[in-house]
Design goal:
The protein has a domain of about 60 residues. The protein has about 90 residues and is mainly α. It is about 85% helix and about 0% strand.
């Protein structure tokens, strides 16, 4: 009989890594969008990046609802993989 708490911990760790990966992808995509926008319209990079960070946060949170649709599917997939891979 497998050690139940340890396998549950591994599955939760797998789920958390997928969630953090998707949030990181959203953050990176928003940073790339801000850089592309600044480059396209010739807007110089500011000394303090507070406005860029604000725009990046707005873009990130506009991407996150899409990820909230993708997160359950990735969690489902990660659980299927974790059940096959982990003892």
């Amino acid at each position: 009989m497998p050690n139940r708490p340890r396998s549950v911990f591994r599955i939760l760790l797998c789920i958390a890594s997928f969630v953090l990966l998707e949030i990181g992808v959203a953050w990176g995509a928003s940073a790339l969008a801000v850089a592309w926008y600044r480059n396209k319209y010739g807007i110089p990079v500011q000394e303090d990046l507070s406005n860029d960070m604000g725009l990046g946060m707005v873009l990130m949170f506009s991407v996150l609802p899409v990820l909230f649709v993708a997160i359950p599917f990735s969690l489902w997939g990660s659980l299927k993989v974790a059940r096959k891979v982990l003892p």
